Amino acid sequence: MNTNNSRNIAFVIISTYLSLQIFSDIGSLKILKIFTFSVDGGTFLYPFTFTLRDLIHRLTNKKISQLIIIQSVILNFFMAFFFFIIGILPSDLEVGPQNEFSNVLSPIWRLVIASAVAELVAELLDTEIYSFWVKKFKQRLIWGRVFFSNSIALVVDSILFCLIAFYGDLPNNILISVIFSNILIKEIITLVSIPSIYLIKIGK
Prior knowledge:
The protein is mainly alpha-helical. The chain contains seven helices and two strands. It has a two-stranded antiparallel sheet with strand order 1-2. α1 packs antiparallel against α2 (46-59) and α2 (46-59) crosses α6 (142-166). The longest helix is centred in the middle third of the chain and has 29 residues, at 109-137. It is globular and about 60 Å long.
């Protein structure tokens, strides 16, 4: 793969990564009932960001991956602050009260902080595990980079997010159910996303 093509693909993957981070945070505002489990809506998109981070790492390097993670956290805080400001500004009463915007998108700061902390810790951990795997195995077992880095990081992410966001507000049995369902769904999505690492044909 030549340098220009590699750079163009990296731009596409980075923009997709940042977009899915934002979409996931918005989706997390709704708690769904899947079978007997309570799951936030962002759970169905967010796991893909870990594999996208792996692809960014493979196309660029560890430092750029870390910078993109930090950028996504900053963007998510900016989005929450932007929605907060829009929510408290007066509505045009000729249009109507427009309370739906504030009811849906005004941030719950505990959730915002929980999401940011979990994302930062878990995705940086993913980066370190991925780097360790590359140093140890080089070009062997490339699928393992995604599986092991994502699997460990997603468990950390789910536990951190749920504890920061819900501990003390939910009964412990429900909290454990939410953590378990988050981990289960994210791990299934990780398994589905593993083949995508082979779509990038480069030497690292």
